Amino acid sequence: MSYPLVHQPVQETTHHLSLSHSHFPKPSLNPQNFELNFRTICNNLLSLTQSRSLPKGLALHAHIIKSGIQIIPLVSHHLINFYSKLQRPLDSAQVFHETHFKSSTTWSSVISSLAQNEQPILALQYFREMLHNGVRPDDHIFPCATKACGILSDYRIGQSIHCFALKIGFESDVFVGSSVVDMYAKCGKIEIAREVFDQMPERNVVSWSGMIYGYAQMAEDEEALRLFKLALGENLDVNDFTFSSVIRVCGNSTLLELGKQIHGLCLKTSYDLSSFVGSALISLYSKCGLVEGAYRVFDEVPLRNLGMWNAMLIACAQHGHARKVFDLFKQMESVGMKPNFITFLCVLYACSHAGLVQEGKFYFDLMKKHGVEPRDQHYASLVDCLGRAGKLQEAVQVIEEMPMQPTESVWGALLTGCRIHKNTELAAYVADSVFELGPVSSGVHVLLSNAYAAAGRYQEAAKARKMLRDRGVKKETGLSWVEEGNKVHTFAAGDRSHLKSKEIYKKLDELGDYIEQAGYVADTNYVLQQVAGQEKSEAIRYHSERLAIAFALITFPPERPIRVMKNLRVCGDCHNAIKFISKCTRRVIIVRDNNRFHRFEDGKCSCGDYW
């Protein structure tokens, strides 16, 4: 891929300044006064950069132009950095173009500004122009260029820059090497990243953090945790990026106890106040079923970035706190935090899983007012919202009016609505449309099969499952797991491999008697196969989530909430049974399926039976 060196039009930043310049030193031709004036302005720029004061910075910029000291490269460097920190990279570029003498520091500043502010293509354009101007890159410029490649996930360009760095003698430079490791890791080339990492004569926190992040991103959680332990063993001063990567590993693997220990380490090193660590901690506690812990972390961090707001929004949405999502969105607006496409995905998700159709439409329409163009994921969420509420024809209309080709996730959302409302005719139409896309995931086949089976059309369901087998695609096995101490106990439906299998099944039989006496009646319609009635009852009684709950009941102390994680959607009968179990045992049971959290307490579920 090549990027043409085209300068983007940049809006002037020094027009219409309303602030007075009287508090800045006046220009002087005396060399001594000129130097004093120059030093004072540089110090003022640094101070305004630190305080993120745009109006005063604009006024000072105008004063600099009036004084004629913009010709000094260091002043230009500070101005570029000022606009960079205020997330105005194009203004940084404008200052750069107005600079008469461009030193390597000036080039480094503008490339860094563009790379740090999500303008990777422009950053690489400037990097190439710098080379054309005969400026030799240094250990500050190379990391900026590789960062841009990491943002683009384009390892080929990154590899070219890496080769160039080696060619001109940076093979032993720790800063360049670390940035290369980070770039390959972010591009998903974990083997190349590890090769570079292992060959580095010296490593710093960036190289260690890059590798840990890379393994976490590739879901190689054990290796990520092993590297983190090695880093601590070498007395490395890990930073907030390292901590956030490891905490995300704990969240993805629902390793609550380990996550809590790392949270404690963050408290000791004062990294708990970092918004990056805060985002990861919110995600950890939310994914482990402790949404109260997520709220606490959110409240304790004084300066929140957009990632932290989004993490809290999705936590609330997944735990069924839809009204809290709307409150948080209003708070974001009130503090001047601009929502992005992820923010709206979180809000639409909350609307979908709470049955709030009008609110979903409102926030979907609100996106364009915030300058966010709806993507296929947003359309999928809107279709899901309408489909779950039974407004299937309206959902079809939304799909037909999409400005882009409907994706598998959009059709899958409509299939979910068809399954819930037993509309097999529409499901068949959706199936034809989705198979036209080419090879699709096993989830679509399963949704179609379940839609037919839920309506009692078992022959069509069998055909859908056969199509899955014929294409060599395996259906994901349903698993449930609970954490006890430092061990995760995993169960599959009808599983008898656990060491406490006898006690578990004995407990399940006892629970079956208790909940039936309390009014529970098994709904065998959720057995999506054509088998005899007794077989259906047995099949549904030993689903993986029930085995996990039985294990927890015989293992956990009475006061401890039971947290069960599940990789697939909890079936309707198990959902009903767990409500009765929570009432009969007087236990709080939290189940996370692949869609959301269900908090069962005293016979009720937080989802309000809408999921």
UniProtKB/TrEMBL annotation:
Domain DYW: 519-611
Gene Ontology molecular function, alphabetical: RNA binding; zinc ion binding
Gene3D superfamilies linked to this entry: Tetratricopeptide repeat domain
Coiled-coil region: none
Repeat region (PPR), residues: 103-137, 173-207, 305-339, 340-374
GO BP field: RNA modification
Matches recorded under PROSITE patterns: PPR
Keywords, sorted A to Z: Repeat
PANTHER family: MITOCHONDRIAL RNAEDITING FACTOR 1, PENTATRICOPEPTIDE REPEAT-CONTAINING PROTEIN
Family: Belongs to the PPR family. PCMP-H subfamily.
Listed name of the protein: Pentatricopeptide repeat-containing protein
Gene source species: Nicotiana attenuata (Coyote tobacco)
